[in-house]
Amino acid sequence: MSKPVLGEARQQSLKMLYNTDSWNNWPVLPVKRRQEGKMPECGTVLDSVPNEVYRNSVFLVTMFEQITGETPRMDYLNFEEMLDDGWEVD
Description:
single chain, alpha+beta, 5-stranded antiparallel β-sheet, 3 helices, 5 strands
């Protein structure tokens, strides 16, 4: 299970999420979610749908899309909920 993003990491993530002009790869912002004993999950947030995290890696997206025709994603009500689920700006 992932832990919520807290403290300075939370403030920095919120600042980046709300300030799309600072995204180096606009309109895409890479995010990650750390889980104890596991490799971090990778994802992206798109400027056009900011409350969704598209879970991805080159392998995962390619395999999942071939099977389902969709990209796996997680929907959130807002950035706070996204950070509470452990996603932070990478």
